[in-house]
Design a protein that fits this description.
heterodimer; A: alpha/beta; eight-stranded mixed beta sheet; four-stranded antiparallel beta sheet; B: alpha/beta; 10 helices
Chain lengths: 335, 331
């Protein structure tokens, strides 16, 4: 019995579109230790959402998982038929999405929606499912839960709806929660409450979590390990402290530098650091390292072939042949 | 950054109430008090950051200042000219000086117009310059925002979010405005792109002597770009001060809670978080007295009695809280 709740091995999910063959997620591998939180970080088009949908096997044509293994509790999810996968979704692996308004059914009460998951997976009679649903709503700190269970989604605020989503996701006591940008659409004070809630529930339920986000502040507060994605690939993977204090990939370093942060008094920066250029179109990826065109550390070898994920420290890997020089100003190319 | 202390924009007691649908029998007279008595001044060359969470009224305030939405009451002055009393001809003339950049780079550009047509449109409407001059100006504007002349023949959908935002900025600059309302200009963009657009806005401000009203819920970006900041809650300003004062010496309990909630991109950072229970109350029937009292960690019964006014408790630092104001007086 491994102590990894999830092991993703060489996952590739490609989209076969009229415009071309898009490698939305390519050769993605990572592990999540039981009880810990891995943050999957990246900007638009990085492949992080596609990766999470692939784990849940929710990818629809023209997308297709073309390679890889998804080992959940030792079982390869790619081997499961649809029926068994459906039993797993919602009960052992649960997912919450970014926009709670579009993931909740507007014509059913929130209590009914939570109870439905319980009814389906645990085969409890209606009355008991409803009681459990209300209990879960209390667990996620929805005030006046008995009454609010009869409300419809539009009668609740964004923060409350997200709590309902979390209640639904946790109602069948999953071992893994996949949270795709769970707080992006929320105001910052509500975001803080939701993150606090996820942290406390994680402890109570011994929950493992895959957190997908572009917000590095959220990552710092919530994650144990971080995997950074760029153009469909993982470019760096490390424990959270190591990533923030010692990034070994130029993209991670650039990302960390371009986040505006509240400055120490008197040290206000004149300009924000940026990463030159833009994310490449997945239809026209450069040869060799995908980040090379925007990289300050680029050398000729970089465009020759795509680097592997190389060891860069304890539990730390980076997809860069110069990972040991990141942070060294003299290693940057002269403009 | 600027040594010109002239007031460019003065807002006095601005209110905007939106009617809630009339009742079945035509009786409904409830209103959403979206902006409920906002006063502020913006000096030439500065960036005034307007911050608050959803529903606080910041976007509505920005639009009322430009008269994109007609205010319910109050006054807005641009260089001493009364905007709300202006005739439609006068307003059209004044509007050359006052522009807006929108949040959503996807819905703010007409998908059926080319980039060139979009950027040229203000010039065409205001009939400045002939066709040849307009084309030259479009090329110039695209260059100013880091795009190429050949982009003018393409359509918005061919560009990324950050590039579309640049197109929106180019359009806003077309008539050489003095004042630009930036309504959440970077919120919809990826982090690294946000930095590029923020830098661009700052560069343009320096080069062209622009004044900004920067509306955002992204506190770190606001701190970076703003000279002064106003914090809004449920239709009212609760604190106004210089950017560094607001972020390093916040006085209003809501400001403190807001700042403590920002996730810091540093796993070692430990901070005291001020929890705000419950949700923001409805803007239809805000709490009596101080609107924030229902969620305030230091609220007292007296807070329900009278609405606190913005009071200067330190040089240039205004707070609307009876407890903070009285603390100051006892010192």
């Amino acid at each position: 019995m491994t102590d990894n709740i999830l092991e993703v091995r060489h996952l590739s999910t490609h989209f076969f579109t009229r415009a071309g063959h898009v490698k939305a997620a390519d050769d993605v591998s990572f592990d999540i230790k039981t009880g810990s939180t891995l943050a999957l970080v990246g900007e638009s088009g990085s492949g992080k959402s596609v990766t999470s949908l692939s784990i849940m096997r929710l990818v629809r044509p023209p997308g297709k998982i073309v390679a890889g293994e998804i080992l959940f509790g030792g079982r390869d999810l790619m081997d499961l038929d649809d029926q068994r996968m459906r039993r797993l979704r919602g009960s052992e692996i649960a997912m919450i999405f970014q926009d709670p308004m579009t993931s909740l059914n507007p014509v059913y009460t929130v209590g009914d929606q939570i109870a439905e998951a319980i009814e389906l997976h645990e085969r409890l009679p209606r009355k008991q499912s409803w009681t459990r649903a209300v209990e879960m709503m209390k667990r996620v700190k929805i005030p006046d839960a008995e009454r609010r269970a009869s409300d419809y989604p539009h009668q609740l605020s964004g923060g409350m709806r997200q709590r309902v989503m979390i209640a639904m996701a946790l109602s069948c006591k999953p071992s893994l929660l996949i949270a795709d940008e769970p707080t992006t659409a929320l105001d910052v004070t509500i975001q803080a409450e939701i993150l606090e809630l996820l942290r406390s529930l994680r402890d109570d339920f011994n929950l493992s979590m895959l957190l997908i986000t572009h917000d590095l502040g959220v990552v710092a507060e919530t994650a144990d390990r971080v995997a950074v994605m760029y153009a469909g690939r993982i470019v760096e993977e490390a424990p959270v402290h190591d990533l923030f204090h010692n990034p070994r990939h130029p993209y991670s370093e650039g990302l960390l530098r371009s986040v505006p942060r509240l400055t120490k008094e008197g040290l206000k920066l004149r300009r924000l650091e940026t990463i030159a250029g833009t994310v490449p179109s997945l239809l026209h990826l450069p040869a060799g390292c995908k980040f090379a065109p925007r990289c300050d550390y680029v050398i000729d070898e970089c465009t020759a072939h795509e680097p592997e994920l190389l060891e860069a420290g304890a539990g730390h890997r980076a997809r860069c042949i110069r990972s040991d020089r990141i942070g060294d100003e003299s290693a940057k190319r002269k403009i | 950054m600027t040594d010109n202390n002239h007031t460019l924009i003065e807002v006095r007691n601005l209110t905007k109430h939106f009617p809630v649908g009339a009742g079945i029998f035509g009786v409904g007279d409830e209103v959403i008090r979206a902006v409920d008595g906002v006063s502020l001044t913006i000096r030439q060359g500065e960036t005034f950051g307007l911050v608050g969470e959803s529903g606080c009224g910041k976007s509505t305030t920005g639009r009322c200042i430009l008269r994109l939405i007609e205010p319910t009451s109050g006054e807005v002055f641009y260089r001493g000219d009364d905007l709300l009393a202006a005739s439609s001809n006068e307003l059209r003339r004044l509007r050359r000086d006052m522009q807006i950049i929108f949040q959503d780079p996807y819905s703010s550009l007409n998908p059926r117009m080319t980039v060139g047509q979009i950027v040229e449109e203000p010039l065409t409407i205001h009939r400045t310059a002939d066709k040849r001059e307009r084309r030259a100006r479009v090329d110039e504007l695209l260059g100013l925002v880091g795009l190429e002349p050949e982009h003018s023949g393409r359509y918005p959908h061919e560009f990324s979010g950050g590039q579309r935002q640049r197109i929106g900025i180019a359009r806003a600059l077309a008539l050489n405005p003095k004042f630009i309302v930036c309504d959440e200009p970077v919120s919809a963009l990826d982090v690294s792109v946000q930095a590029q657009v923020v830098n661009l806005l700052q560069d343009l401000q320096e080069r062209l002597g622009l004044t900004y009203l920067f509306i955002s819920h992204g506190l770190s970006v606001v701190e970076h770009i703003s000279t002064r900041v106003g914090i809004m809650y449920l239709g009212k300003l609760v604190e106004v001060a210089s950017s560094s004062e607001i972020f390093h010496n916040p006085l209003h309990p809501y400001t403190r809670a807001l700042l403590s909630a920002i996730p810091v991109p540093d796993p070692d950072y430990r901070r005291e978080r001020v929890s705000l229970p419950g949700d923001v109350p409805t803007a239809i029937a805000p709490p009596s007295g101080c609107r924030f009292r229902t969620r305030c960690p230091i609220a007292e019964p007296e807070c329900a009695l009278e609405e606190p006014q913005l009071v200067e408790v330190a040089a240039g630092h205004l707070v609307a809280c009876r407890l903070v104001a009285s603390d100051d007086q006892t010192e």
